[in-house]
C-alpha cells in the first residue's frame, strides 16, 4: 500500500469529499441540532448553496442514536402580511418543543407591522414569486431546505399560505400526522383530471419528454405535508426540476400551475406507496374565479362551517387546515377559536 504522501492529490481530494457525507450518515449526532438561520429578510440567496447545505442534514430523526421528539415544521408561503398569526399562535400555544415556523415572504411585500411572538425573526432567504411560473416551486424548495438545515428534529413539513387556517387543535394535528404508522407524506396525487393534457403541454407538446411522459404526469394541491425523507428527495432532485422550471407558452398561461404538478409528479414517480394520495388542506372549488378558490368572508364564519370543512369522503381521516379566508375573518375566527376550532369533539 502506498504511503499517504504518494497518493495523487486528486485522489486524496475525492476521498475527503466522499468521506464527509459518509460520516454524516454514520454519525448524524455530530451535526448540530440547530443550524441558525440568518433571521432577516434576505434577498439574492444562492439557491444551489442552500440546497447543498440541506442535503447534508440528517435524512430522518430515527437515524440518531438518541431519539428526538419529532417536530412539524410549518412553512408559510406568502406575498402579503400573515393575517391570522393570532389564531396560529393560539393554535401553537403550550406546544413549544413540537413545532417550528419558517416564512418565505416575497421581497416586494410590504408588511403593515413587524411580526412578533412566535413569528418574529422566522424569515428564510426569499426571491420573488409569481403565479403561472416555477417561482412557487423554488420558494417551497427554499422553505424545505431552510427547515432541514435549521432543526434536525423537523420530521414533517406542512406548507401553508397566508390565507390558510387550522381547523383542529394542535394536539389533534400532531397526533394525526406524526403517529401515522406508515410515515407517509400527505400530498394529493390525481390523474385523469379534465385539464391534465392541457397542463402537460403548457410548455410545449414534447417539452416534458423523455423525463416525464403524459402517463406519469400528475396533478395535486399546492399545499401538503411532506415527511423528512421526501423533503430530502425534493431538495436533491434536479432531473424533473429542469423540465418544470421551463416557462409556459404565452397562450397556455391559464393551464400553467407548475406548483400543482411538480411535487405530485415527482413523488408519484419515486415513491407512490409512501404518499397518502390526498391533501390535509380543505379548499372550496365550487365557485372559482381566475383560478382562485372560494374566498370565505366574515358572515360565513360559523361553527357549522368549521365542522363542514373538517369532513372528507373518507372517514379514516379529517382535514386539518383550510383555505381561502379573507383577512377580515380574523375576528369571527378568534371568537370561536377555543370553543369550536380547537375543540375536537
Automatic annotation (TrEMBL):
Signal peptide range: 1-26
Protein name: Uncharacterized protein
Primary subcellular site in the record, as a coarse category: membrane
Keywords: Glycoprotein, Glycosyltransferase, Membrane, Signal, Transferase
Subcellular location as annotated: Membrane
GO cellular component, one term: membrane
Pfam families referenced in this protein's UniProt entry, alphabetically: Branch
InterPro entries referenced in this protein's UniProt entry, alphabetically: BC10-like, Glyco_trans_14
Membrane topology label: Single-pass type II membrane protein
A GO molecular function held by the record: glycosyltransferase activity
Organism field: Rhynchospora tenuis
